[in-house]
Amino acid sequence: MIEAYKEALHFLCTPTAMGWMLIGTVVSIIGGIIPGITAKITIVLFIPFILLFPRDIALLILVALQSASVTGGSITAILINIPGTNINAATLLDGFPMTRKGEGNRAIGAAVTASMMGGAIPVFLALAMIPLLLPILMAFQAPEMAILVIGGMTCVAMLTPESTTRGLASAALGVLISLVGYQGSTGVSRFTFGSMFLYDGFSIATFALGLFGLAEMFDMKLKGEKSITNITLAQTKLTGLAQTFQGARDVWHHRWLWLRSTLIGYVVGLIPGIGGEVAIWVAYAQAKYTSKNPELFGTGCVEGVIAPESANNAKESGALLTTMAFGIPGSGLMALFIGAFLMVGVVPGPKMLTDHLPLALTLLLGIVICNVLGGIICFFSAPFLTIITRIHMDYVFSAILCVIFIAAYAVEESLLNIVVVVGLGVFGLIMKRFKFSRPALLLGFVLGGMTELYTLRSIRLYGTLFFMRPICLILIAIIIGAFCYPYIKRLLLLRTQKQV
Amino acid sequence: MKMNMRKWRKVPALVLSFYLVVLNLAIAKPGIAKPVEFYRGKVIEFTSTAQPGGGIYNYITTMKPFIEKYTGAKVIVTIKRKGGGLEGYSYIYRSKPDGLRMGAGSSLPMLLNYIFEAPGLDYDGSKFNFIGASMPDRMVLMVNPKGPYQSIAALQHAKGLKFGVQSMMGNISLANVSVMHNLDLDALQVPGYEGGVLVRLAVLQGEVAACTSSMSEALTPAIGVKPLFVLGTKRDPALPDLPALGELVKLQGEKMILNKWHDQLRNAKAWFLPPGVDKDKIDYLREVYNKIIKDPGFITMSETMFGRSFRIEGILVPGKEFQKEVQEIINNKKAMRTAFLPLFKKYTAIR
Fold first, then answer.
1. Which residues, numbered 365 to 424 in chain A, qualify as contacts with chain B under a Cβ-Cβ cut-off of 8 Å?
2. pLDDT tens-place values along chain A, 500 residues long
């Protein structure tokens, strides 16, 4: 084992390996920043050239292309309210308000630091986790996934404490929209109106672009705002890199929050089929639950940036471990990884950790290095990138509109999707004006379909009492406990105050 | 008065010339370029019916440089993947039949959508022109190597078996219900899994007893499930040690016919053109395909891309042969609907 580590480190420290990791990381960041271009697309574009490189370099480039994409996506989410990737959606809620308050650099500093550490540090857990990994994978079947996803749905309540009715209405609408499309379990097309465009339903990216990105731009333009940031430089306490470093210090200050969120993301990433969307919202909800100032969430609270950004990068590390250790891809992206492994003659699975241990360690340590490189690049680029928030709205609005429309087309390869995004933009604006929760709608949309899928499958496999399994009961207890926790805390506080 | 015979001799010549001119005008068409000249310098739109990174997309990526090499045309790849490829098949079906619009897709799902009239169907599967096909995979039953079902007898003795599947009436579902019916299993298939890999994970977890998969997946050692037999009456050259169902169990009557169909129901990565394309272009492209599959560069690239040998017999099927194979399946459309539609209802857990 020590020899394998030495071999891996020796290889990673060569100029060739470092150079390619740097190039891959930069491409990954750019791909993440541009909405519609995800790590999956950059990897697909690279795969035809994979054979031009030696095996280890080829796989290292793949890892680099994936590592920093989510970090790059957080920048777009924070600065212009458009998630660069699907799993940056929760970062919008507090990241963009921070930018509006003139704290864009701080938000980026916090996001990038949390992402970097969230992606890098769990890798060291990885090797320790491997003996536990197989039992976790085998234990999490359809009923457990159903309870986990239903648990994610309960986060809706946490997102809308000011008006539970409106929050539930938004979430219910999101669930309704998630039903659109062909349902493989029942063989029925729902609300497609005979249109092939609606056959696969809507995508999360479309929702995020319209409901958040475009709606926010419309809102700012209609209000006659001059720039994204409505505070001048003179009014901000810190600017530039100083503010970015403050964000990094915020992560240290909230290190337990970072740790909890990282663990949530990592565990969710290990389990195939769950998706990063669950991880980020659960992380965000637990951050709000455990915060001393939950009322600040949604108004520009740095904890609301740290939690989802730690979770989303940790999730990617977890997914890669499951892919390499068991040959089970947790997502479409990981399925590409498996294809790439096979192309270069490496069979992912338990044997990879025995027959190709130095390679496995090279890739795992490569994730660490690429996350750190990506973090450093984004960190020091932040002051330059936040300039966009001070440019006059007339220029920014048209540029962002172009980006949104191109991303809308790229997501579905259809011009009709641009119409959908515009429609969602108008709808998002109306929701914002009437104080209906857009995050609740997005959460309902993301989790509604998954809830139906896993619940139906669980009932067909195990009957209506599918939840009477040990792990399901433990998860239900955790969810009820988490739900009751704020009330119990308030009760105890009241009791203590009375006694005083 | 002597007649001027010279003048009169000219008349038949004039009449003949007149008729020859009329005849030529009647039968002459504007000059048609030969296919080889037609394709040189042109742009071919090659549509993938699957998403980037998938098997079909990789197939097109492998073919692309060789199509350009042998035709002199430039190939642009477009993607139409909605509805599990339905959008793409429909798009290619309705494309202008100028020989410059073509596509690639999984042949069996395309045909089964047509045979079972899938929701959203917008094409006639019998009218595509096939240029060639790769990796025609038959279906294989997969079980957990550490599970309790290591033989057909074990499956037949068990009660309340569950098989995993993605959708109700695809090629995997077809194979599942065939196995259940032919072996008289007390089993139901549970649809709704998001992908073949997750179905195989469910087999490993013990959530389902078994599943069917294509031969390509049986050849991929990554996921850890074990193939038990290949559906059909004869073994597959890709896995010659794997017995066929017809060898293991003596089937009779309609069960024998159902099993025999599986010899033909192969899922290949197929290259096809829309209906109405000129025959000489089709023949030309088939010749191009025959050259491509003999090109050592193509063989090496395919072996690397797909991780299996491309030198075994039958892995690359010429267009004419594949067209016949498809036609035989189409000819059985009515019989297949009569046989399989009730089986889908009987063996699928809908509740």
1. 413
2. 778 888 888 888 899 999 999 999 999 999 888 877 778 888 888 877 777 788 889 889 988 998 888 999 999 999 988 888 888 888 988 999 999 888 999 999 999 999 999 888 888 777 677 777 778 878 889 999 999 888 888 777 666 666 778 888 999 999 999 999 988 778 788 998 888 888 888 988 888 889 988 998 999 899 888 888 876 655 556 678 888 999 999 999 999 999 999 998 988 888 887 777 788 888 998 898 888 888 888 889 999 999 999 998 888 888 888 887 777 776 777 878 877 887 777 777 777 777 778 888 888 888 889 999 999 999 999 888 888 888 888 888 898 899 889 889 888 888 999 999 999 999 999 999 998 988 889 889 988 888 998 999 999 999 999 999 999 999 899 888 877 877 888 888 888 888 76
Contact B192 A197 (CB under 8 A): no
Instruction: Pick the closest to residue B129 from B85, B99, B87 (CA basis).
Output: B99
DSSP string for A12-65: HTSHHHHHHHHHHHHHHHHHHHSTT--HHHHHHHHGGGGGGS-HHHHHHHHHHH
Of A328, A336, A456, the CB nearest to B223: A328
Residue of B nearest to A453 (CA): B192
Cα–Cα distance for residue pair A266/A261, rounded to 1 Å: 9
What's the pTM?
0.84
Given an 8 Å threshold on Cβ–Cβ distance, is B192 in contact with A453? yes
Three-state DSSP at B257 gives helix
Is the minimum CB–CB distance between A294 and chain B shorter than 8 Å? no
Supply angle C-alpha A374, A377, A383, rounded to 5: 135
Q: How far is B252 from chain A (nearest CA, A)?
A: 31
ipTM of the complex: 0.82
Distance (Å) from the C-alpha of residue B20 to the closest C-alpha of chain A? 55
Contacts of B57 in chain A (CB under 8 A): 44
Q: A343, B221: Cβ pair inside 8 Å?
A: no
Given an 8 Å threshold on Cβ–Cβ distance, is A272 in contact with B167? no
